[in-house]
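Long-time lurker. I teach an intro course on protein structure, and each term I like to show students one example going from raw sequence to a predicted 3D structure in token notation. This year I'd like something fresh instead of my usual example. Would anyone be willing to generate the tokens for the chain below so I can use it in lecture? Attribution to the forum is fine with me.
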Amino acid sequence: MDYKKTNAPLNTVTRDMIELSEDTGNVYETVCVIAKRSNQIAAEMKHDLEKKLQEFASLNDNLEEVSENREQIEISRYYEKLPKPTLIATQEYIEGKIHYRNPSKEKINMGD
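-- Reply from a regular --
Happy to contribute to a lecture. Here you go:
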């Protein structure tokens, strides 16, 4: 996923949680959905970063031999400038890109 192409803001935005939770009908459920998606995005971003930095890992890492690599620094700066996973997840939720289900509600509906 290209995180730079997301419409998520780079800074924290105040949101109306009552309006945001209209789909679920529960503020806490909405926060839970966004939090779970945020954790998925954070894990994916961490995996991508580790994969890119793995190319620069040397087999003989000593404290004395550690040198700064300009490409490593640029990659790290790129990831630092990206929107935070929570902001990306919130934007995805607002845009309707997150698909979720609540198994406990499905059991109640099946019993009717």
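Some talking points for your students: Residues 27-54 form the longest helix (28 residues). The chain has five helices and no strands.
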